[in-house]
C-alpha cells in the first residue's frame, strides 16, 4: 500500500501548509528582477550593474517569463479563489485610468514632496536622490528604440503589454489584497475572509502601493483606494485583478496613441 502521508507531501501540500508562498513568490520574483531594469538615465537599474538601456527589452522579457513561471508554480493556490468578474470591476477600471492619468498630469507629488526633499533632514539623508532613483520609470519606447527592426519593436511591445495588463495586475493584487491586507489583520491571516477589512488594512492597502509608485503618489492613493472599495463591495479578488487589467490596458493604449512613454 502506498504511504498516503508521503503522497500528500508534494508541492500542493506545501502551498497549503505555507499559504504565503502563493501570494509572495510571484511578487518577489517580479520585484527582484525589476531592480535590474535600466532606465534612460541609469544603466543597470537600482542595483547599478553595467546593463545598458539598449538591453531593457531582454531584462523586461526575462522578468515576465520568470514571473509567469512563478505564477504557474503557485497556480493551485490561485484556483482557491473562484474566477468571476463583475461589470462593476470593468467600470472601476475604466474610471480608474481617467483618474490615474488626470492626477499624474497635475504633478501634485512635486509640490507635496518639495518641502520634505528640500529641508535640512531631507538633504542630510539624501532624500532627493532616493526619490529620484525610485521614481524613474524606464520610459522605453520600442517603436523608436527598435525602429530598425519593426518585427522586434512590435514583438516587444506585445510583451510589454502582456506584462502591464496581465502579469502586473495579478501579482500586485494577489500580494496586496490576498496577503498583505489580511496579514496585518490577524495572526492566522489566511483565515480572514477576503473582502473583510479593518482600519489598519485600509491604510496599508493605500500606503504600500504609494511606496511602490513614488512618482504617482496621489494617483496611487486614489486609484488603490477605489479598488479597496471594490474589494469590500464584491469580496472577489478576481474583480480587483480585472479592474487593474482594464486600467493598465487602457493606460498602455493611451501611451502608444499619445507617445507619453513616461507613464510606462
What does this entry look like structurally?
The protein is an all-alpha fold. The protein has helices spanning 4-8, 11-17, 20-34, 56-78, 87-106, 108-118, 120-124, 127-135, 142-145, 150-183, 199-212, 217-234, 237-258. The protein has one domain (4-263). It contains 13 helices and no strands. The N and C termini lie far apart (57 Å). The mean pLDDT is 88.
Summarize the helices and strands and which ones pair or pack.
Elements: H1 4-8, H2 11-17, H3 20-34, H4 56-78, H5 87-106, H6 108-118, H7 120-124, H8 127-135, H9 142-145, H10 150-183, H11 199-212, H12 217-234, H13 237-258
Helix pairs in contact: 3-4, 3-10, 4-10, 5-12, 5-13, 10-11, 10-13, 11-12, 12-13
Characterize the largest beta sheet: strand count, sense, and whether it forms a barrel: none
Low-confidence stretches: none
Cα-atom radius of gyration? 20 Å
Sketch the topology as an H/E string, one letter per element. HHHHHHHHHHHHH
Number of strands: 0
Q: Please give the share of residues in helix.
A: over 70%
Share of residues in strands: under 5%
Provide the domain count. Answer: 1
